[in-house]
Amino acid sequence: QSALTQPRSVSGSPGQSVTISCTGTASDVGGYNYVSWYQEHPGKAPRLMIYDVSQRPSGVPDRFSGSKSGNAASLTISGLQAEDEADYYCCSYAGTYTFVFGGGTKLTVL
Amino acid sequence: QVQLVQSGAEVKTPGSSVRVSCKTSGGSFTSYGRSWVRQAPGQGLEWMGEIIPMFGTAYYAQKFQGRVRISADDSTNTVYMELRSLRSDDTAVYYCVKEMGRGSRSFDYWGQGTLVTVSS
Predict the structure, then answer these.
(1) Dihedrals φ, ψ of A82, to 5°?
(2) Which phi-psi region, left, alpha or beta, contains residue B91 (left: φ > 0; alpha: ψ -120 to 50)?
(3) What is the pLDDT at residue B60?
(4) In this predicted model, what pLDDT tens digit does every residue of A42-53 receive, in sequence order?
(5) How many CB pairs below 8 A link A and B?
(6) Chain A residues inside the 8 Å CB shell of B62
(7) Partner-chain contact B47 A100, CB within 8 Å
(8) Is A48 on the interface with B (CB under 8 A)?
(9) Cα of A101 to nearest chain B Cα, Å
């Protein structure tokens, strides 16, 4: 159960788009359509942004989108806003009621 | 509206145990899995284990096998996480999280977090 691989940091200017990658294996990301993404602001509990690879919970702006190809998943944020600056974590189901998180990506809005 | 309310901060010595509770209000308690996720200072999220209250069966990350126990009390809608043989690197915020269910494997509600500090 190794952590999923994410870039340590990404950045973009307001209005631009950024994509955060999340790479796993055939035992987790590649094996199930159960990748989720969480946004974490300092001092706050994480918030679900994307579930089941590409689904948005109620209340999440449609600027946030998710996709998956093979053993890799991605979160794209379009029309960047200052409040999007946060840490983002991917998570994948890994079978038999187990999960694995990515190491996290710090998004900086320039 | 679902709420997960966790017990308060703990300070423990190395080698001891800690038990953190998580009480659910709103929604169905037994139908959805409850996981524990921890975050060490300045570090990322780490999944520790999950219990399915309906079945009372718990599943753990290999890293914590033999050192963690997750249990559920249906009568009080409370889930517990006990971590034994504490070390300094167990210092972290521990979150109780609820699975979304309805065929999804994701976590839609998070507790407020419980800081566990392990120090001599």
Answers:
(1) -55, -40
(2) beta
(3) 96
(4) 999 999 999 999
(5) 69
(6) 1
(7) yes
(8) yes
(9) 6
